[in-house]
């Protein structure tokens, strides 16, 4: 009577710390609750300090494996990050096949779950007899959209940005210009990739999504219904990392009154233009509110990819702030340049608001901390996230940009005051605190997310 061999699952992550964080959290639960062991497979292109630190901090039952680098220098210099990632996956398939075969010969490999731009790995999984799953690290609005892209591609005439709005079942209508950034230019190669991924999503045996019902109740209702030709959807979120609790900025927060500080950060890769950095700085000053700002060097070319891959600022970002700003703000503002322990920061009692690029991990972290948002979207699906957070969940206020895209200092001051002191801000804070409760209930034993993870684990255990 031998015990059944320990189930092992391979999780494939495309570059970006924001993709690895939720996968790692998911892996931890599979290990701790259901006795799995896990290999997290990354692409060489994604090596950055924050990522190595995260991967090396995981429990021993979770190993990581970086596939060898593949040449990407033939891609056009302005290739979009989603294109780079998708091409890197295709070129890594022979190495992935080798890695998975090797795992199969040493462990009881039961499934491959790949993230949003790694769908071409499904072919390799099928060849090796492994059920392919999609791990989707963002929300149902984005998932619904991507699942519909092939159909939209056949029916929508012209560019999506020119649509008055796009309505997807159960989702808030998205105004044309706010629709997913990589489908906004149909002549760009990245658009073809998104159509391709939209088709391949339907080939998965299941779609695991890092969101929860209370945040997108109507979309959840729609996607929970089985639909022919669409894999079952498992809502396992909000899965977020714990992160470190030790940093100088937390000690600064200890000195500040409750709910008084606006945390300002644009995620691991977001940067502003020089002009926008100036307006944001002077707007924060005009608002008269306390703030903690993770400052990054401006980029005027609008290219996020380099910052995204390294999660680091190149030049001294303080050098780009308005003359005398840092000195004048000494009493009320803390400026930091490097990686901050964001989760601990959001959960600090002094943090009362989050000016955020609406990256999905950041959004889930702020929901779990019960902190309302100023939506300042930059790229990827962030603009449609901002629509969902302001119009759907109503936990965010959105700053208004001028026709040229610039958000002037007066507008910064208005929206910051509105969030930190206004009635709209108070209402958003109440709602985000309700969502915090709902999120916690879902993750507890017997809750929706808990049971969704269990369902996946049971399926995987029964696979072999
Ligand atoms: N993060 C952090 N410290 C920083 C910047 C980012 O801990 O200084 C973490 C943040 O908590 C989140 C992730 O990095 O978990 C960023 O993911 P998100 O999806 O919000 O945005 P992305 O970086 O992918 O644009």
UniProtKB/TrEMBL annotation:
<keyword id="KW-0808">Transferase</keyword>
<dbReference type="GO" id="GO:0008194">
    <property type="term" value="F:UDP-glycosyltransferase activity"/>
</dbReference>
<dbReference type="InterPro" id="IPR035595">
    <property type="entry name" value="UDP_glycos_trans_CS"/>
</dbReference>
<dbReference type="Pfam" id="PF00201">
    <property type="entry name" value="UDPGT"/>
</dbReference>
<comment type="similarity">
    <text>Belongs to the UDP-glycosyltransferase family.</text>
</comment>
<dbReference type="InterPro" id="IPR002213">
    <property type="entry name" value="UDP_glucos_trans"/>
</dbReference>
<protein>
    <recommendedName>
        <fullName>Glycosyltransferase</fullName>
        <ecNumber>2.4.1.-</ecNumber>
    </recommendedName>
</protein>
<keyword id="KW-0328">Glycosyltransferase</keyword>
């Amino acid at each position: 009577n031998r015990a059944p061999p320990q189930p092992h699952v391979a999780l494939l992550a495309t570059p970006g710390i924001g993709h690895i964080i939720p996968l790692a959290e998911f892996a931890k639960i599979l290990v701790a609750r259901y006795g799995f062991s896990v290999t997290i497979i990354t692409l060489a292109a994604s090596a950055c300090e924050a990522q190595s630190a995260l991967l090396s901090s995981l429990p021993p039952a979770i190993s990581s494996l970086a596939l060898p680098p593949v040449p990407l220098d033939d891609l056009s210099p302005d290739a979009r990050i989603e294109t780079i990632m998708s091409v890197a996956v295709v070129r890594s398939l022979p190495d992935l096949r080798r890695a998975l075969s090797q795992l199969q010969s040493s462990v009881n490999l039961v499934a491959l779950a790949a993230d949003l731009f790694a769908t071409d790995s499904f072919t390799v999984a099928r060849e090796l007899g492994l059920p392919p799953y999609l791990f989707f690290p963002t929300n149902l609005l984005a998932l619904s959209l991507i699942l519909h892209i092939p159909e939209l591609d056949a029916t929508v005439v012209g560019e999506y940005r020119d649509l008055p709005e796009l309505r997807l079942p159960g989702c808030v209508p998205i105004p044309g210009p706010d629709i997913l950034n990589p489908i906004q230019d149909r002549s760009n190669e990245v658009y073809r990739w998104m159509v391709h991924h939209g088709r391949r999503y339907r080939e998965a045996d299941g779609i695991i999504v890092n969101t929860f019902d209370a945040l997108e109740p109507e979309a959840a209702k729609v996607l929970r219904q089985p639909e022919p030709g669409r894999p079952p959807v498992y809502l396992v979120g909000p899965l977020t990392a714990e992160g470190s609790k030790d940093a100088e900025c937390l000690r600064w927060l200890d000195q500040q009154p409750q709910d008084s500080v606006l945390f300002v950060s644009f995620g691991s890769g977001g940067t502003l233009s020089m002009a926008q950095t100036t307006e944001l700085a002077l707007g924060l000053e005009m608002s008269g509110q306390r703030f903690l700002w993770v400052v990054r060097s401006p980029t005027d070319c609008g290219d996020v990819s380099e910052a995204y891959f390294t999660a680091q600022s190149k030049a001294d970002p303080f050098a780009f702030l308005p003359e005398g700003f840092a000195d004048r703000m000494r009493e009320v503002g803390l400026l930091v340049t490097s990686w901050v322990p964001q989760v601990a920061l959001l959960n600090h009692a002094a943090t009362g608001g989050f000016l955020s690029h609406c990256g999905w991990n950041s959004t889930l972290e702020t929901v779990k901390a019960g902190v309302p948002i100023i939506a300042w979207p930059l790229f990827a699906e962030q603009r449609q996230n901002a629509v969902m957070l302001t119009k759907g969940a109503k936990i965010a206020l959105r700053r208004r940009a001028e026709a040229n895209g610039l958000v002037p200092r007066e507008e910064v001051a208005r929206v910051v005051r509105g969030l930190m002191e206004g009635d709209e801000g108070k209402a958003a804070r109440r709602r985000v605190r309700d969502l915090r409760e709902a999120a916690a209930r879902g993750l507890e034993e017997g809750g929706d997310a808990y049971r969704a993870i269990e369902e996946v684990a049971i399926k995987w255990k029964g696979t072999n």
